[in-house]
Write a structure and sequence with these properties.
Blueprint: E1 2-4, H1 12-17, H2 21-25, E2 27-31, E3 34-40, E4 44-51, E5 54-61, H3 65-75, H4 82-89, H5 93-101, H6 112-121, H7 127-141, E6 144-147, E7 150-153, H8 158-162, H9 166-171, H10 178-185, H11 190-195, H12 201-209, H13 216-226, H14 237-248, H15 254-264, H16 269-281
Antiparallel strand pairs: 1-5, 2-3, 3-4, 4-5, 6-7
The chain binds a DNA duplex (13 and 12 nucleotides) through residues 19, 119, 122-130, 132-133, 170, 173-178, 180, 212-218, 221, 234-239, 253, 277, 281.
Length: 283
DNA sequence: ACCCAGGCGGGCG
DNA sequence: CGCCCGCATGGG
């Protein structure tokens, strides 16, 4: 057991539940005053316990101690200065309500490849089914890791998913997204994934959108949750609805919405988006 | 039986 | 550009 400090407000439940990658392949339980989160990565499995805002963890797999620590800090957004972020995005009463209702929700930084996979699956889909399909992929293509005589599955990496056929994806429930995922895993490599880090936001988004099945919205999700580009502003049906009802007051195209959001919330539009999305979806 | 879900690609005007 | 359609699948 290793302990981690948390600065500022942090709500593990909201962070886990709010439609970010962990919601699609992690496990969360609340038992008395203890919260438990576990999740697989491509290299190991993490077990996190929260009690009275104190966080401890164990991990298994191919991680040096310091890398495991960094994995959790990134994954849960523990280094974000949430009070500063609130001061920048709390611009009006609507988002103020969202922040009050979701106080401590953090934008997570997930593994870029994992994020590409889950958000390609996410299109025209609902959260429950995204999760089911993602767990199917893990079960079928993830490497096995033995922990205390129990066999666990890791998140499949690029090579694991290259072993899949188009029919494999279809049989796991990906539907019309099967051809997208098949095309992507067979056309990118880890250089492609790492190069995104060196590009500015617009360049990175255009690069991602060259892939089949990645459009404006999915590219923004990958940039926000996989690369933690906080200027990314994914516009799905819920966010579009929130923007039209509370901000733009009329139909606007995605370009106008992006400009408006990044102007209003500076380079933290992605954080604002996550609060608007989850708040709108649950109201 | 319809409608929708963290959309995208392609075709048409 | 904007609009419309097909695309798989399961749940309300």
């Amino acid at each position: 057991m290793i302990n981690l400090d948390i600065k500022g407000p942090f709500n593990l439940k909201y962070t886990f539940e709010s439609g970010q990658p962990l919601a699609f392949f992690g496990d969360y339980k609340l038992d008395n005053n203890n919260e438990f989160l576990s999740y697989p990565t491509t290299k190991g499995i993490f077990y996190i316990t929260m009690n009275n805002n104190s966080l401890s963890y164990e991990f298994y797999g191919d991680y040096a101690d310091e890398d495991a620590r960094k994995e959790i800090i990134d994954r849960l957004g523990l280094n974000d200065d949430l009070n500063y972020i609130y001061s920048k995005i709390n611009t009006d009463s609507y988002i103020e309500n969202a922040i009050r209702n979701l106080y401590g929700l953090r934008v997570t930084k997930n593994d870029p490849f994992e994020t590409i996979v889950v958000f390609v699956i996410s299109q025209q889909n609902n959260i429950k089914r995204i999760r089911k399909i993602t767990l199917n992929l893990i079960e079928k293509f993830g490497k096995q890791l033995n922990i205390r005589n129990e066999n666990k599955k890791l998140f499949p990496d690029l090579e694991d998913l290259r072993k899949a056929s188009l029919n494999d994806f279809l049989s796991l429930g990906l539907g019309f997204r099967s051809k997208y995922l098949y095309s992507i895993v067979n056309s990118i490599d880890y250089d492609f994934i790492n190069e995104i880090n060196k590009l500015n936001y617009n360049e990175a988004k255009n690069r991602l959108m060259e892939l089949e099945g990645i459009g404006d919205k999915v590219a923004d999700c990958i940039l926000l949750f996989g690369y933690k580009r906080l200027e990314a502003f994914p516009i799905d049906t819920w966010v579009k609805k929130a923007m039209e009802e509370h901000y733009l007051l009329k139909k606007a195209n995605v370009k106008e919405i992006h400009e408006y959001a990044n102007k209003k919330w500076n380079n933290l539009a992605g954080y604002a988006q996550q609060y608007l999305f989850w708040y709108k979806r649950n109201s």
